[in-house]
């Protein structure tokens, strides 16, 4: 940071000033003084604050004296939100001023006439003002002049007031040095804990802090002590001894600098001197500035902290502030750090100043940056706890290119407070330690990979205590090539050599000043050093090959220097900034200064590139090229002047005396424009421009005065239209076309060809190039048109593919020969987008059967794959199909495996797979409904296989036993579930019939479970004969263990001891075949051995086959019950899909439905109407 006085404004009649305040939003500066003086001035800048030389231009655009006060105006505060000024004088008169039609006018007046106003302040949003009086009175008002509340604090004298950042608390400073905290409604909260209480000078709480970890509350005491606190609850405040008799203090616009104005007394008996101290939020002294005059009374910051205003005696002094921004410049890219208001995140802008392209990178906690060559490094603090724990590091280094893209990164444990960068290393330092990181760029990484060099993962940390005795702290660093130099706060310089793999200590020297900034010239022979007071020194370095030694300080000194930049191509040339002037030095001799206040970026080819960073950071997300400054050295300006006014021969002597490649190139171009080939050649030799020398060699072989020479020279200076016109005038259309070809202007080449007779080969070449032009810009539609004219099928295919124009791509196949290599390429394109049929056609056309088959497999078109395998006799497709199905089953994707077989038209194999899955599920016995669904789906696939005409078949390793009778397992589990439901619903008669039906499926269901259910159902129905038979079956089961068999025997003994083995129920019906009376739950007749069908809805046997409805997909049996004089189907089910039902109720004697219930919805049919059931799945 560097501060210097830049302007002095005198107050008329020499009236002493008492206060000063700067409107940060609108730029108005208000000052108050004795005899009721109140003056408002405005220091306007031009639109971008810099002129062509980078100098800030300020003019006094507004100057108004306000009348209304009679006493000395001691307080002036701005409300930037509402653009209002509130002032108070020694008589207690308060006036609110408002800006209206270009001038300031009184809006409100308040005079309490009891006491003097000692403090006024607006809250953060500008909606409330708090006014305190010396006698303890407090008034809080709104921005529109309404009084919100007032209070008289007893037995206290108030001196200062300020709002908390959130406007929820008000801090009152008392005359005795205490600070009391009240809420926004005037209720006392607490007394602030002060470390060194005495009378207060200032109480400032910054409102918009973006660093919550930094103190923002500053309390300044009359004894020169400063207390910094993070909040009102801070138990560890920072105490700073300012060594001043303070007058006022103010935070800058972002709370990173606290300026304190006061008086300092020298040891000699001279009058007190006005002094300004600048502190960081942590209390570190940044800079001290001496001010003229006798009595300083106030200070105020400008909106973006680029200037400071002081009220001293009867003058306003303005100081220019040059901040130490975190920025760097490389490869036409400006990199700078910025914050968004009220957001804690840091942002880094990568601004391509040449193309005006911007890339923003968000960084959580930014520390610093440096650059070299084509890359820069960003130093950050890590905020990811997992990374901190795993790496044992709290900081990170990110190597980025010009677009802000990370190229390499490194986690480090040493805080990178100082950062420097060379072409191979990043140097970071903090305290008394430093570290080198050997970074890798894509180019260097390729070289290292080829050489086989192993990269070290852990970097070594060096301590300067190893090389320098005593306690020292590093204050600055610079590095270039193999030279590394550190400066310390103890006025030492330490040199290190980086030419070998290990850091070599070169030596150290003692200085008479403390270095704060250093810079090496291009060949590392001179070191520029800036001290704390802005004095520039030059140190000579003795360089011997790859080694160097620190020399001595040269007898060269410049004061008030705040920036310096060495030329990249001349070690004796550098530019420096002294206040508002830029000086260029050649061999330590200055040229004429240039008015400028911009930051220096780089110095090359006698041209200095600078940027007004203060103005850029006013709107950091939208930097303007008008903030960039390009300036030429005096020698370059003089050479241009000589060439324009005198001529080439006279300018030659000047360039000889001030030799530089840029000057020789300028001279050569001037001679070439005058067609002085001899002088141009001599100058091009001096600047080593071999390409231009080849041009001159060609021109010398042409006739003198030839138009071709003029055309070539015009082309050299990029006057291409003029050159083409000259070629055409000299009847050299071929050279005009060659020029346009070099420029890539193929549209113009086509025009020139059309105007002349050309061959088809030349036309096709031009069309190809035009197609390439549009293709490079991803304009594939236009590119395809030219490729078609050029008959370039290879490029045309790529265009169609990029446009996703598969229709034209398919048409193109018919035009290609079967041996054309584009055919398999197109096939692979179709494969990549999933167009299997088109890809197979391409492969078949070029006779690549194996590739066609692989494509079908890759895209899971198994039906096509199986058919293709038959054609080419590739039996391995079956094994691949099965292998793929096994993989799907391994991951539990049963449905995918079944669908795989279905797509391959292997329905029987799909059914077999489902049957096997169902068999495995039976063993687990965990979800009967899921088992039933599996078997239903398997049976449907079996039925589907019967209707498929082109059924593919595979050799199955294991064939399920259910394939021959596919519906039996589904029926078994259906009746099993039905029986369980009937048990739960208490339908004992129905469950008896269903469990008897289950005896037909003991080969599928667990035999013990079936007979246990039958024994239970028959016992509940008092059919103990059936129950006895069930127990007999249970006891005779060979797989039953002895303990279970014994338990069944004991249970049977207990039952049949009480009840004889006879059926107690007497409900019988006639067998429809032999008229024998049988039980109504019997599913077969014991006389004629006829078996009866069972109803899938109730499980009961159906005797009369004339009243049965069945499904065409699966024979579903539905029965009826006669009740009285009409026939009803009660709770019967019509099956539309396997085991999915609709309830049907019959109520008429004609057996026609009167209503049908579909799920929860009933459709009623009027009685007597004849309704035809039209569902194709039902057959009456």
TrEMBL record:
Span of the signal peptide: none
Residues covered by the IFT121-like TPR repeats domain: 965-1063
Keyword Repeat: yes
Coiled-coil spans in chain: none
Keywords carried by this UniProt record: Cell projection, Cilium, Cytoplasm, Repeat, WD repeat
Domain IFT80/172/WDR35 TPR: start-end pairs: 663-754
Record-annotated IFT121/TULP4 N-terminal domain positions: 1-322
Family annotation (Gene3D superfamilies): 1.25.40.470, YVTN repeat-like/Quinoprotein amine dehydrogenase
Name of the featured protein: WD repeat-containing protein 55 homolog
Localization: Cell projection, Cilium; Cytoplasm
UniProt xrefs under InterPro entries: Beta-prop_IFT121_2nd, Beta-prop_IFT121_TULP_N, Ift122/121, TPR_IFT121, TPR_IFT80_172_dom, TPR_WDR35, WD40/YVTN_repeat-like_dom_sf, WD40_repeat_dom_sf
Start-end of each WD repeat: 66-97
Residues passing through the membrane, by range: none
Domain IFT121 second beta-propeller: 327-632
